[in-house]
Write a structure and sequence with these properties.
alpha+beta, 19 helices, 21 strands, SWIM-type domain-containing protein
Length: about 650
């Protein structure tokens, strides 16, 4: 794992600033840029008045002085003491090593203008009123992209196609700068979804090249797929307004609200942000949240367990809010359910409630498998990342453990059984996996405690894992009402334990049941995705990203019919077809009028990869949906 200067010491840099620095660098220095960035690993970052300094060697001290937003938003805020500055290798390398700033959070003062002053709820408007109105107007009608939007999308497509063809090892600072420049053009053209995908792709490339902990290649594959999909369709003139996205999710007044706390969720982001989010349910059933997420590391997420956050004139303790409620006046709410913290907000506490009463009980009113299946069948076309992320609740019985996962079965509805409800007949074996395995958080330790009591009945609130068969990421647990073999939590916990913060102890568990302990521990067979030959297609699309086009060529030559044969025999004929097309396209090269081999076409290859990845995602999603089906599609269980 590569050690970099701590992200909380290096300020974020706007994409256009980093891209401009790379563009201004003489071409003869481009090949040395990546090596220089690598040499910055471990270089001390010093504090100076108004910013930070990085010692890049003899007579080369780079100083960064962020603006009021905490980010480097203009080129003159990065200076080097060497004679070649500002077109020097030292300054450019430091800017490339800094985190990529979100332009919505750190606007460029030159283009934001007077209209960028914070709203009453703390949100910032878009950079120009014209682009915001344009996107809002298109939300209800299919209008073809403008010439400028098609040009910006085309630039993004070319940059992303080049990155895909080169692969992560060759996608260094220069290809990343092309993506950042194209992302800036997409922002100016009013394409927020494409811009966001490009910035996430750059962050994913850096995380993979630096081998950052917690980064997964599958996440980078998903981001590149979304970027190519959106850019390709917009460049072709597709009028679907969902491809444009939303410039900002503005907070709207919502009058008086009564909200009740569900649980706290610690947040540790790969982008250098951390904190806590408290999930809430309104009296009318809406799912809301109130967060305190700011730049910082895992320590901040841990320390926010009992943090106090200002909500207007009210100081909100997240530990108290998660187990109580508030009556809020003058509040604002974003379309995705986030509560605003404007100056006009007033709030008074409500009596503490548990999960079994009031609006919170609706979390557990429907069978878990039914709720999850509905989530998997629904998409949010304007924000695909949010699809499948809503909280779900259910009553489960612990049956064993595999690794750091707890195995459980859903209990029959309360109306169909007595206090000690039995599991649903032929229901799926549900995996409870840690929501975050960071050692500073309590998720892993708490799941181990729960797994030590087979037969334990627990009420769970969590989030669906859309990439694994019948898997939940639990955020909080509580006792099942009326059950004897259930949790015995302290009174001041109000019937719930936040798995990221509260530590479940031995006295919170019922006595061990000798009968349950003598039964053989159940172990799961491979899940619905892992036991299918689709792993061959998954390996191919991931290899295309991690190794580039040439790696796909070599893999296809080595496997031959071993790639498509097992897929066709298992009935995945379309997967075999698209995988074969990707393998063929990766090795396709034309000839010019003189018979000489020409460079391969990056567009055809990118479309072939995009088709393969899209089909793979849809097929895996359907397999995962079937794993939750109570009518016989559950994974096999063996003693």
């Amino acid at each position: 794992m590569t050690d970099r200067p701590p992200t909380d010491l290096l300020p974020p840099v706007l994409p256009e600033v980093a891209a401009a620095a790379v563009a201004a660098l003489p071409p003869r220095l481009h090949k040395r840029l990546d090596a220089t960035v690598e040499r910055l690993a471990g270089v001390p970052v010093g504090r100076v008045d108004g910013g930070v300094s990085v010692d890049c060697g003899a007579e080369a001290l780079v100083t960064l002085t962020p603006g009021p937003t905490g980010a480097v938003t203009e080129g003159h805020q990065a200076r080097c003491s060497c004679l070649l500055a500002p077109r020097c290798l030292h300054r450019t390398a430091v800017l490339v090593a800094c985190p990529v700033a979100d332009p919505a959070t750190h606007p460029d003062p030159a283009s934001a203008g007077a209209s960028s002053a914070p709203d009453s709820d703390g949100a910032k408007p878009s950079r120009t009123g014209r682009t915001e109105r344009s996107a809002a107007g298109r939300a209800g009608q299919n209008t073809a992209p403008t010439k400028a939007q098609r040009a910006a999308a085309g630039a993004l497509w070319r940059a992303a196609s080049a990155v895909l063809a080169a692969g992560v090892p060759a996608a260094g600072a220069v290809p990343q700068a092309e993506l950042l420049r194209a992302a800036h053009s997409a922002r100016l053209a009013g394409l927020p979804r494409a811009e966001s995908a490009a910035l996430r792709a750059v962050r994913g490339l850096r995380a993979h090249r630096e081998r950052q902990a917690g980064h997964r290649l599958a996440e980078l594959v998903e981001v590149l797929h979304d970027l190519l999909y959106v850019a390709g369709r917009l460049a072709a003139g597709d009028p679907d307004p969902a491809l444009v996205g939303i410039l900002r999710r503005a907070y709207q007044p919502d009058g008086t609200l009564e909200v009740y706390g569900v649980c706290r969720e610690p947040v540790i982001s790969a982008n250098g942000y951390a904190g806590v989010v408290t999930h809430l349910v309104a009296a009318d059933g809406r799912r809301l949240s109130f967060g305190d997420v700011k730049p910082g590391g895992p320590e901040r997420a841990r320390d926010c367990a009992r943090a106090v956050t200002e909500m207007g004139a009210v100081a909100v303790n997240h530990a108290v809010l998660a187990r109580g409620g508030l009556r809020i006046t003058g509040t604002t709410v974003s379309p995705d359910g986030r509560l605003g913290a404007g100056k006009g907000v007033r709030a008074s506490p409500l009596i503490e409630t548990d999960w079994a009463t009031g609006p919170l009980a609706e979390l557990f009113a429907r069978p878990l498998a039914e709720v999850v299946t509905a989530q998997l069948a629904a998409d949010d076309p304007e924000d695909p990342i949010r699809a499948g992320t809503a909280l779900v609740g259910g009553d489960l019985m612990v049956v064993g453990a595999v690794g750091d996962q707890v195995l459980a079965r859903e209990l029959a509805p309360a109306t169909d059984a007595g206090p000690e409800r039995a599991p649903v007949p032929d229901g799926p074996v549900i995996r409870l996996a840690p929501a975050d395995s960071h050692p500073m958080l309590a998720h892993v330790a708490n799941l181990r405690r729960l797994a030590s009591r087979p037969g334990l009945r627990i009420r769970v609130v969590g989030r669906l894992d859309p990439d694994r068969a019948s898997t939940l990421r639990p955020l909080a647990v509580g006792p099942v009402p009326g059950a004897a073999t259930t949790l015995r939590l302290p009174t001041d916990w109000h019937g719930r334990a936040d798995l990221g913060y509260d530590e479940i102890q031995g006295n919170h568990l019922p006595p061990r049941d000798p009968a349950a302990m003598t039964e053989p521990v159940l172990a799961l067979d491979a899940d619905a995705v892992a036991e299918s030959p689709l792993w061959r297609v998954r390996r191919l699309v991931e290899l295309a990203v991690s190794g580039g086009r040439r790696a796909v060529v070599e893999a296809a030559r080595g496997e031959g019919t071993g790639l498509t044969g097992p897929l066709r025999r298992a009935g995945f004929t379309t997967a075999a077809t698209v995988a074969s097309a990707l393998a063929d396209e990766s090795d396709r090269r034309g000839r010019d009028a003189f018979g000489r081999r020409t460079d391969p076409d990056p567009d055809r290859y990118a479309w072939a990869w995009l088709a393969t990845t899209a089909h793979l995602a849809a097929t895996e999603r359907e397999l995962i949906r079937s794993s939750w089906d109570c009518r016989g599609s559950a994974p096999a269980v063996r003693p």
